[in-house]
Amino acid sequence: MKTQIIKLSEAGETAYAQAADILKNGGLVAFPTETVYGLGGNALDPEASKKIYGAKGRPSDNPLIVHVADISSVEPLVTELPREAGLLMKAFWPGPLTIILNVSPLVPKETTGGLSTVAIRMPSHPAALALIRAAGLPIAAPSANASGRPSPTRAEHVAEDLSGRIDMILDGGAVGIGVESTIVDLTGEIPLILRPGYITKAMLEQVLGTVKIDPAIARINEGEMISGNEPPKAPGMKYRHYAPRAPLTLVQGTKDAVREKLVSLAKEAREQGLKVGLICEDGTELEDRADAVYYVGNRQNRLELAQRIYDVLRQCDADGLDVIYADDFGLEMDKDLGYAVQNRLMKAAGGRVLRGDGDDGT
Ligand code: TXA
Ligand code: MG
Questions:
Q1: For position 168, what pLDDT does the model report?
Q2: pTM of the model
Q3: CA gap 226, 235 in Å, rounded
Q4: What is the CATH number of the domain that holds 335?
Q5: Which end of the chain is less packed: N or C, by CB atoms within 10 Å?
Q6: Is pLDDT at 361 greater than 50 in this prediction?
Q7: Both 161 and 264 in a single domain?
Q8: Are residues 265 and 215 in the same domain?
């Protein structure tokens, strides 16, 4: 299959009609959202969902998020619409929030992974909204990466992973947020965050009152990897996601302590003949200390970190490193967007953490 790549900055409105035709005929179109690129197919067509799993190489027990372009499209997909869902949609849609509700018989089990619930979100990216509206369908869209690779934040990332496996890529340039949507489950007694994202716990609590974080997610952020006992409630969170090919270790501590530790770790690795990469803050000046140095902004700018982290993890793969050490950017203390970035970095690191102040903790 030849994958058609369309630059939205050059194409006219007809691009959406063409992409919508593909979706209506059961094909797959990757498109930009404000979080990451999605791989879209007709959410109501079991064959389209199967194609999505096939193209990504994704385990079929990992359900897809259904994307809509207006709130009224949610009703047919669910058995009931709790008051809390209405409040969240009003406050955060369109935007980077996915809501889990009880699924209606309209949505095939191929889309929900056989669960009794469905994940729904209304993205705010104008290209995503235009595509969903043109198709006139709810669109199932996981992140448009090959399973296990970092999520795509540019169309080039999608092409890298899925070229030849999908019908079309709509290239809308780099995305605005860079980490996937916050997922909140409204099917239990207390709203539960299943995946941290741009919409934080505090933002949700302003609308809903008490909100909890899935304990398995909190454990990931503390550096504890998932054991079999109590898996995360979002099936996708249990997979070793986002991981670059070379082992990655996070270094925590003050700015200076982290720099010192990165220098000594890189030196040790190079003495063993390993090709080492360092992920660090702008201005850390480590060029001559490692084989590759990636600057991802600074501690104060969480949004820039979010926007760049997946790109850097992909770059690490392209550069063929043996070992990677990354500044933790003080994220361990963060309860906001940094909590989401730390979640992704911690998963990429498989829980490997060192302390820069000599106290090698857990
Ligand atoms: O920002 C995003 O949400 C992006 C863009 C494309 O919209 N999409 C995305 O999809 O991240 P994906 O498939 O990569 O991640 C979906 C996550 C998985 O962890 C999955 O297990 C979880 O959502 N999920 C989907 N349906 C669920 C359900 N009914 N209950 C619990 N978790 C669910
Ligand atoms: Mg994904």
A1: 98
A2: 0.95
A3: 12
A4: 3.40.50.11030
A5: C
A6: no
A7: no
A8: no
